[in-house]
């Protein structure tokens, strides 16, 4: 059973989501909240598998609430709900530890699939969103001065050559199948490497790998690791 908490300041929207979720035999709504502060408290009390989190709320917003939840309840996954495709807060939400985002007007089937995917430990992004996320938000990051390397550089340097190859291609939003074809290995081998990379770097999922790689300067906007072609994102791969 997948336990879910709804956090949104619109009561009507929470009611609609609850009706959709409670009709599913494998999903249970454990609680809901109308603001971030109450959402954090509800999560602490119920320990859900997944939180559907609005971004724009009075008081404690969805970004701060997400950061607190992922820090205090690391087993809980946060799926950000946004009204606009890639609004200005989405990148901040991913940095705060969210496992992805979904549009509020997504069809019920897409919402249910996203919840089950996130609960299984995978990341979820709205279709085509990763490339736009990279193109729109990553270039705005402040440059890392040579004298002040990113804190993760030492961890990245500790990866094996093959793991660094895989990490770079994951950061370029490649699927396991694409990585396997480029490195001439099996998809099963890629999956093992991805899991090891995430563990070594202390990352929750592939979305966090994308964010870290761009912040640390491993890859830059417009590149895709080793091939140089534009980055794209296919269906979510299991880590």
Compile the SSE list and pairings.
Elements: E1 2-7, H1 11-22, E2 27-33, H2 36-46, E3 50-54, H3 62-72, E4 77-82, H4 90-95, E5 101-103, H5 108-119, H6 129-137, H7 153-157, H8 161-171, H9 176-183, H10 187-201, H11 206-215
Parallel strand pairs: 1-2, 1-3, 3-4, 4-5
Helix pairs in contact: 2-3, 8-10, 8-11, 9-10
Provide structural commentary.
It is a single chain. The chain is an alpha/beta fold and 239 residues long. Helix content is 46%, strand content 11%. The protein folds into two domains: 125 residues, 3-Layer(aba) Sandwich (Rossmann fold), CATH 3.40.50.2300; 70 residues, Arc Repressor Mutant, subunit A (Orthogonal Bundle). The chain contains eleven helices and five strands, in the order βαβαβαβαβααααααα. It starts with a strand and ends in a 24-residue tail after the last helix.
């Amino acid at each position: 059973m997948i336990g879910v908490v709804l956090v949104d300041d619109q009561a009507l929207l929470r009611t609609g989501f609850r009706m959709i979720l409670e009709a599913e035999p494998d999903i249970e709504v454990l609680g809901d909240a109308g603001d971030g502060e109450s959402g954090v408290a509800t999560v602490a009390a119920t320990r859900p598998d997944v939180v559907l989190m609005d971004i724009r709320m009075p008081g404690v917003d969805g970004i701060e609430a997400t950061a607190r939840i992922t820090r205090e309840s690391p087993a809980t996954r946060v799926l950000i709900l946004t009204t606009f495709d890639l609004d200005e807060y989405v990148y901040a939400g991913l940095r705060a530890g969210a496992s992805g985002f979904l549009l509020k007007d997504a069809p019920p089937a897409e919402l249910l699939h996203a919840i089950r995917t996130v609960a299984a430990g995978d990341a979820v992004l709205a279709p085509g969103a990763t490339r736009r996320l990279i193109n729109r938000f990553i270039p705005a990051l402040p440059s890392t001065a040579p004298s002040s390397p990113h804190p993760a550089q030492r961890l990245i340097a500790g990866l094996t050559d093959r793991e660094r190859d895989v990490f770079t291609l994951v950061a370029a939003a490649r699927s396991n199948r694409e990585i396997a074809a480029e490195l001439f290995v099996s998809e099963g081998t890629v999956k093992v490497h991805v899991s090891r990379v995430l563990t070594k770097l202390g990352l929750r999922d592939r979305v966090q790998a994308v964010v870290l790689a761009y912040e640390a300067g491993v890859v830059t906007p417009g590149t895709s690791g080793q091939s140089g072609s534009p980055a794209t994102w296919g269906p979510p791969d299991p880590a």
